[in-house]
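Lay summary

Proteins are chains of building blocks that fold into shapes. Our project writes down both the chain and a compact code for its shape. Here are two examples, one after the other.
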Amino acid sequence: MLRCVRPRRYLTLIQLRLSYLSRWLRRRGGFFLRLFLCWMFAILVLRYDEVTSYDQRFQLRGPQKVGNEVVVILLKLSDFRKTGSIQMSTMIDINEPTTISDSTFWDQTLWKEFLTQLLKQKPRSIGVNLYFGDNVEKITLTPEEKRIFYDPKIFWSTSVNHMDRSLLPAFTNRRQSNVGSNELRRDDDGVVRRIFPSTSEHPLLVEKLTDLRLPKNNSRWLINYRGDDTLFTKVSWHEIMNNELPPRFLENKIILIGAETNLTPNYQTPFGPLHRVHILAQVVDNLLHSRWVIRYSMGVYAAFLFLIALLAAFIITHFPQSVSLVFFIWIGTLVAAMSAWIFDSFYVWLPAVSTSILLASIWIIFVGYQASKIERKNFVLEQEQKYLHELEQLKNNFVSLISHDLKTPIAKIQAVVDRLLTQDTQNELKNDFLALRSYGDELNRYIQSILQVLRIESREFQLIIEVADINEIIDAALRQLRPLAAEKNIQLTTSLEPIFSVEFDITLMKEVIINLVENAIKYSSPGQEILVKSWEDQNFVHVSIVDHGQGISAEEIEKVWEKFTRGKNQDLKTKGTGLGLYLVKYFVELHGGQVSMESQEGKGTTVSFTLPVSDDKTSLEGVS
């Protein structure tokens, strides 16, 4: 039985999890669909990214250092004319349009002398990037010439006829080990970006010159162009023929020989038009130093873009749009910088344009998606806010009604107590009547505080700005509080400097001063002194109340300004609602002022507030 129950339980658990996953995917189907579309769009762009940004990567990088192993010799028609060649001077008129091919540069005597001078320099290898075979007259070589033309350091280029059959040069040895293909193939847009394996049975000329083989892990190799045609060391025909080079200048060098013909035009490269011999020099440098550009498969780049898409989706769904935009710009800049650095340092091609387009598409699509979600949420919030406002209004009306209804019986009780006290001063219940009168005043203040909070939190609350002297308001408030201070034998003193009239709400400012002085009286011991000061400083009026009471701890100073908050040690010692300082801070800030408190436990407290002299911050029509 147990063996039957457990598989069923596991099956039920799997079904529940699959059901949960299905519901989760349905709820977020729109999100993942948009993310998938952005990712697919980036992959489509990636297919064309190599043509657009790949060439720009070389141009932005600029010329790079190359090894000194390669020397380029580019023959010109004028070089042969200046040598005094009878064939060149009699057969070719430089002012007439002439077909200049490889065969134009063939002169057996001159080439014998030219190669002899090169071999004297003891180079590593010599690659002749011209085809001399059936395109020249029948060649007969002397033993000396055979020794030179068949030298193992010299490699001759093959050619291809109209039937794509390989044509061997005239100096091919029996093993055909001294020949190589100099074939270059263009991409669809006519730019040479890669070197392909030879289509003939002969290796590439660059492999023969370096005695190295292209890597076998690829069928085409991206050429890491290091610069333009000024990058490699150049030697002219006349420098060789006239023996103008320093001794051993070409020692252990790979020499590439080419010629300017109109049958082999320049090839378009990321650095602009280059001659075939300069492109082969770039390939030789890549082969010698393993500088090939590394380009991974489409799957690797698609996975990289997918990770970027997930990161971008997480950011835009968890942060505000302004913050997300900063993150997107930062990610795009970081990927572009990393792409340039990796390409320059490790020759690894990392797509930057596709990443930028992916981030831009996610930003555009998901901002619209979030905007529609926010619009729906705002509609729901508006409905909830309407209900909450009605509920808040009902609450305020209820509290206001109860408070007003309580004020009437309290006023009647106080009137009866006052009449009894005046009619019979010798009554032995006099102390009880006085206590009852004090309790009534305290209850009345509680009700007044609650009504005041309801009033300032209502949408119809307005300041009534008038021009008045703050010192007069202080004197009026102290006159009202002196009886309360006399009960505790506390002396109220003032230090009021003459102050110009200020614009403020007289009723609210009087309430502020009464609350602050009443608090000081409440928390001061009998027989102490309370000082009220006022002075004017630049554009502000300052008022401070200094007492020598119990003081407040540092961690409670910031909390005492909150609603219904009192000191932790005062809840049982003194009575209060915890609304006085809240109202003080609220009233002062409504006028554009600030409140502050400094206190030390056991030494006293100083509460201060400031009011601006100008009326820039007090011109409030209504405050909610």
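And here is the second example, written the same way.
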Amino acid sequence: MIYRIEKEKHNAKDMLAILGANPEIKFVSLVGLDIYGHSTDEKIPVREMTRDYDAFMARGAQTDGSAVLLPKIADISNARVDIIPDPDCNWYVDYNEGIGTLRIPAVLVHNIDNEVGSRVILRDAIKSFKTELLKAIKENPYVLEYLPVKKADDIKEIVLTSATEMEFYVMTPHDKADKERLHTSQQMKEQYWKRTIGPVRTALEKTLLELEKYGLDVEMGHKEVGGVNAELNAGGGFDHIMEQLEIDWEYSDPMQAADNDYLVRNVIRDVFRAEGLDVTFMAKPVTGVAGSGKHTHFGVCARLKNGKLINLFSPLDMKEDFMSPIGYGAIMGLLKNYDIVSPFVSASTDAFNRLKPGYEAPICPVTSLGLTVESPSRNRTIMAGLIRDAKNPMATRFELRSPNPKSNTYLVIAAAHIAMLDGIKAVLAAGKTPKQLEASVSKKYGKADFYLEKNREYRSEKNIFDLTPEERTKLYGESPATVWDVLKLFDKDSKKTQLLFNDNVFDKLDLESYREASKRIWATELSDRLALDWREKCHNMYQLHYKEMDATDLDEARWKKIDSLRKAIAQDSTKKKCLITKLEKALSDGNYDLAAKMQLEISEKMLILENEYNEYKKNLF
């Protein structure tokens, strides 16, 4: 059975031969991505492709504006959207009970010639980064003094690499997580990198083998910090499974890395469910317990005309400097311009539930380089860290730790490259040396810099959560707390937002479409999901003690506090509206500033309420 078809074989002759030799491939699916990252999936009989291969590649398939999320671009009154196959990437065959579907990444085209969606934006960002970086090197040849390159003309091409690390929770269907057991296990680090057993081991091993078939060069799969030990039942099976896992694989070019990210999620879900286990890629499936991240890595190399590949982030002498000027420029650009990356990283309430102090989740745009050049320490409290190996210059890269499994990898990688390019161009234009740039990124609050903001710090080798919230805000800026807060970052500094429009990577309609899509989903989730969930939880917190019980005055006092709080959250009176009703009114009025404020207030009070109710239950006999 064939699982992957490389781009070199996407011509008519090779593809017709492959499909003829593999009759189990019955369908074709064109995988287009809208502005929010939702993908299309349809079943086209393979004969439609083989009947006239070139025509199929040119025309693809059609859908409409109601089938994809492209607000302000395609709607029911202007709905034509074509899904055109992308020949310049790997194609995969997805099997279901021996029946294969050829999944082809595709470009969405609105009204015949307007290419739209996440894949298009990443494609254009990659092209812009490569072109502009090579141009900046040629215009500022001083930088070659810090690289193993004699002259700019020796560079044949810029090579970009990216990869993601996928964390996820696996569980027995319909079982509810015991938060206290999860929290205790996390504090004792009972699960991290432990041996998997039972159906979890079976599913993990089958997943790794399945990914190898697709040529993903899996590096490892292992248990993460979250989870509890499963229980062996009388029938010899396992119940109450709740474990956090991670799977890592090799690097690819940015587009292929994003495609791989989608492929891996589908394979994980299919294999684990075949073993009777449910999977969630939520960033924070259980409050009070470690969430799931999707650390995203970035590397920049140059292929020389003699065929040699060099890492442009690495310094000439790995024992003398942390990075080259290009490396410093990239991390400085990413940190300074994180306001235009953050809305693509965290576009859901679930994402912000993870980005809170106390669980190793990064909340401040700050980096760590290492204690010294000789000491490659790893600070897990920062957002974007330098990863390097003094013995291997090709390993130098950055790890962005804020994305979660549901982040739109295409737009995260695109925006990150736009941000990095701005920093690289500024550094090279200023002619800065590695030592000068180390001083810049390490500068203290209040010190002026040629590029970085005066009243900010950008580097920390210490635990930033040892600082008070007020101290973190002063040094690293205020962190958004809701989807509406992060979307407003596009308006906060128009100069940063303008970077997205350089080289037409984004256009204003793209950005408006993304903002509208994110706002709609956030508002709908608040009103139609979270509000209902909060009300249900409040309704289910009822009085448990009665006169005949051995209840104490403490129980009575606790219940009065609980009852008052749950009514304030979820019960209206003729004189006063509850918090949830106020939230729903703010959303219906389009008062999103107030809605965001109400969301935070209710979330905080619900956490207090749940903790109080748990303490109340514990004390009752």
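What can we say about the second shape? The chain is about 40% helix and 15% strand.
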